[in-house]
UniProtKB/TrEMBL annotation:
Coiled-coil stretches noted in the UniProt entry, renumbered to this chain: none
Pfam families, per the entry: NTP_transferase
Gene3D superfamilies, A to Z: Spore Coat Polysaccharide Biosynthesis Protein SpsA, Chain A (3.90.550.10)
Domain Nucleotidyl transferase, first and last residues per copy: 14-239
Name of the featured protein: Nucleotidyltransferase family protein
InterPro entries: Mannose-1P_guanyltransferase, NTP_transferase_dom, Nucleotide-diphossugar_trans
PANTHER family recorded: SUGAR-1-PHOSPHATE GUANYL TRANSFERASE
Residues annotated as signal peptide: none
Length: 245
């Protein structure tokens, strides 16, 4: 049976950080912001997939932080048939990642409740509800989703004498990385800098205080950061393979 207290602690609001220029995705981002780039074969921009996922996970309100070509993203949001309520904010001057997150969080409808956040170039599917429960169980101020991406190169295995024993194509990394998806407690926004990068200030401080948690994305769940044209092509192929299972 689902714990009703756990359900009440799960966020119903989120911030999507969609202000990046996406220079490595050019020419796709010459006339649109990075989250508006479509994954081939889906007919939907990255942010469309994100909003659908958030809604499926119980989110009812989203604040989208816009920047590069904000008007293109805003126009799409105004005309799209969305499964939740969306508000957009635009920084009048660059605030940095931490300052931008703080500015967007100030527009959430429930300042006294926890919230999700995601980078605008992440294409993933896993249980945010499970992540929120993990966050609450550890009494964390912030929880980061952790991914173990595949390396873009082949790897070799060697024995103790330096002989190569095997070749492995694109193996998973031995390290977990920040997957760009978060759960934050209500007080987290006050800890963010007005300007600057929270990953250099707020996160290290919380880690030292043992108030920063890491939620491993479950094995078999889909995750990819869309940074380059190659990522788009590979994501399309991976999604087609998943659909064919």
């Amino acid at each position: 049976m689902t714990d009703p207290n756990a359900v009440s602690r799960r966020p119903v609001q989120a911030v999507v950080l969609a202000g990046g220029q996406g220079s490595r995705l050019r020419p796709y981002t010459d006339d649109r912001p990075k989250p508006m780039v479509e994954i081939p074969g889906t007919g939907t921009p990255i942010i469309g997939h994100q909003l659908t996922w958030l809604a499926e996970e119980g989110v009812t309100d989203v604040v989208v932080s816009c920047g590069h070509l904000a008007e293109v993203l805003q126009k799409w949001l105004e005309t799209a048939d969305l499964p939740l309520s969306v508000t957009t904010v635009v920084e009048t001057e660059p605030l940095g990642r931490g300052g931008g997150l703080k500015y967007a969080a100030a527009h959430l409808p429930h300042p006294d409740r926890p919230w999700y956040a995601t980078n605008g170039d992440i294409w993933t599917r896993f249980s945010l509800r499970d992540m929120a429960d993990f966050h609450a169980e550890r009494d964390a101020v912030a929880t980061l989703a952790l991914a173990r991406p595949r390396l873009p190169w082949g790897a070799v295995q060697t024995d103790g004498f330096g002989h190569i024993t095997d070749f492995i194509e694109a193996p998973p990394s031995t390290f977990e990385i920040n997957a760009g998806v978060y759960v934050f407690s209500p007080g987290f926004a006050a800890m963010l800098p007005e300007r600057g990068d929270h990953e250099r200030t707020t996160f290290p401080r919380l880690a030292r205080e043992h108030r920063l948690a890491g939620f491993p994305i479950p094995q078999g769940s889909y995750w990819r950061a869309i940074d380059t044209a190659k990522d788009l092509t590979e994501a399309a192929g991976e999604l087609a393979a998943l659909a064919g299972r």
